[in-house]
């Protein structure tokens, strides 16, 4: 397949390697500092774009691809307050938009485990739920997109939890507290804890490398290139 890479940082470069290993053709690379722009390409020559940039850039990049008739897989976090606008644009343009806060298979299984554990724990009021995420020091957003998806999974199951808050910012009642830690070189670690006065239950996902995210994004592009509409990991993995 012919792929346009949008964002050539840690993820974009890992994705390029995986695309080449899997026999795909990289038709272009767009980054902040390249002369190439999304507007130089159109849907006739590009099967799909893969976008990993930064919170302040994702909305414009995704809009530009959809306007150019280019299907798009995006994993950029921290911009989802404008997701509805993108979904409307995708429908208006008969495009394809595949978003995941985390493309790794392991994390998507962990999302399911998180919901199952929340379902099990919700009758037991002695346990309070909390979350911790650890990422590398270059990460621009907090909490991570993955932590927000995990919090949404808990909110979906509990009647008396309806929000999340970042620890260190204003505490909210009936909400999951998320602690965001930044340490050198950590690809991404997420822990959910149910704590009572007597004991603690903990589930944890540790990414050893970014390859799992990049491989997931390439597999998502392979799957999405012949589809239309709003696409997700749950659709693709049938979980
Ligand atoms: N959904 C997932 O599975 C994953 C999501 N991410 C997210 O992906 C994003 C990128 O992560 P990294 O590659 O680690 O960051 P990075 O900082 O290494 O790379 C970002 C790249 O985007 C470029 N960029 C910024 N604005 C741009 C624009 N307007 N047009 C084109 N390029 C632009 C930067 O110059 C940089 O090269 C972050 O939001 C991160 O949270 C990261 C890993 C996995
Ligand atoms: O910025 C990162 O690196 C990551 N971002 C995503 C997130 O915010 O959840 C996914 C992964 O954890 C790595």
TrEMBL record:
A biological process from GO: diaminopimelate biosynthetic process
EC numbers: 1.17.1.8
InterPro entries recorded: DapB_C, DapB_N, DHDPR_bac, NAD(P)-bd_dom_sf
Gene Ontology MF terms in the entry: 4-hydroxy-tetrahydrodipicolinate reductase; NAD binding; NADP binding; oxidoreductase activity, acting on CH or CH2 groups, NAD or NADP as acceptor
A GO term from the CC aspect: cytosol
Active site: 135, 139
Binding residues for NADP(+): 32
Positions that bind NAD(+): 31, 75-77, 100-103
Dihydrodipicolinate reductase C-terminal domain span: 106-237
All residue ranges annotated as the Dihydrodipicolinate reductase N-terminal domain in the record: 1-103
Annotated binding of (S)-2,3,4,5-tetrahydrodipicolinate, by residue: 136, 145-146
Reaction(s) catalysed (UniProt annotation): (S)-2,3,4,5-tetrahydrodipicolinate + NADP(+) + H2O = (2S,4S)-4-hydroxy-2,3,4,5-tetrahydrodipicolinate + NADPH + H(+); (S)-2,3,4,5-tetrahydrodipicolinate + NAD(+) + H2O = (2S,4S)-4-hydroxy-2,3,4,5-tetrahydrodipicolinate + NADH + H(+)
Subcellular location: Cytoplasm
Main localisation: cytoplasm
Pathway note: Amino-acid biosynthesis; L-lysine biosynthesis via DAP pathway; (S)-tetrahydrodipicolinate from L-aspartate: step 4/4
Keywords assigned by UniProt, alphabetized: Amino-acid biosynthesis, Cytoplasm, Diaminopimelate biosynthesis, Lysine biosynthesis, NAD, NADP, Oxidoreductase
Entries under PANTHER family matching the protein: 4-HYDROXY-TETRAHYDRODIPICOLINATE REDUCTASE 1, CHLOROPLASTIC-RELATED, DIHYDRODIPICOLINATE REDUCTASE
Similarity-based family: Belongs to the DapB family.
Function: Catalyzes the conversion of 4-hydroxy-tetrahydrodipicolinate (HTPA) to tetrahydrodipicolinate.
Protein name in UniProt: 4-hydroxy-tetrahydrodipicolinate reductase
Organism (species): Sediminitomix flava
């Amino acid at each position: 397949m012919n792929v346009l890479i949008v964002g050539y940082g840690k993820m974009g470069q890992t994705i390029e390697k995986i695309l080449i290993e899997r026999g795909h053709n990289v038709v272009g690379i767009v980054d902040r500092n390249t002369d190439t722009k999304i507007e130089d390409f159109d849907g006739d020559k590009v099967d799909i774009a893969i976008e990993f940039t930064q919170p302040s850039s994702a909305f414009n990049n995704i809009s530009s691809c959809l306007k150019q008739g280019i299907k798009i897989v995006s994993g950029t976090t921290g911009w989802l307050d404008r997701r509805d606008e993108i979904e409307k644009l995708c429908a208006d343009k008969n495009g394809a938009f595949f978003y995941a806060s985390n493309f790794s298979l392991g994390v998507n299984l962990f999302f399911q485990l998180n919901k199952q554990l929340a379902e099990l724990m919700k009758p037991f009021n002695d346990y309070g739920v909390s979350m911790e995420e650890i990422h590398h020091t270059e990460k621009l957003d907090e909490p991570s997109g993955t932590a927000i998806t995990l919090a949404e999974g808990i909110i979906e199951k509990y009647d008396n939890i309806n929000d999340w808050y970042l620890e260190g910012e204003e505490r909210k009642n009936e909400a999951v507290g998320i602690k965001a830690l930044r340490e050198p070189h950590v690809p991404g670690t997420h822990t959910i804890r149910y704590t009572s006065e007597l004991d603690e239950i903990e589930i944890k996902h540790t990414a050893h490398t970014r390859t799992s995210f990049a491989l997931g994004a390439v597999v998502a592009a392979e799957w999405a290139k012949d589809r239309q509409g709003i696409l997700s990991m749950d659709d693709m993995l049938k979980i």
